[in-house]
Amino acid sequence: MSFTCQALTVAYDNTPVLQQFSLAFQPQKITALLGANGCGKSTLLKTLAGQLAPQAGLIQLDEKALAVWPLAQRAQRVAYLPQYPELFADMTVFDLVRYGRYPHQSRRQQWQPEDEVAVRDAMLKTGLSALATRRMKSLSGGQQQRAWIAMVLAQQAGILLLDEPINHLDLNHQVEIMDLLVDLRQQGKTLIVVLHDLNLASRYADHLVLMKQGAIVAQGAAREVLTAVKIEHAYQQPVSVVDDPVYGGPMVIPLGRHRIPISSLGVV
Question: Which of 193, 206, 211, 207 is nearest to 21 (CA)?
Answer without folding.
Answer: 211
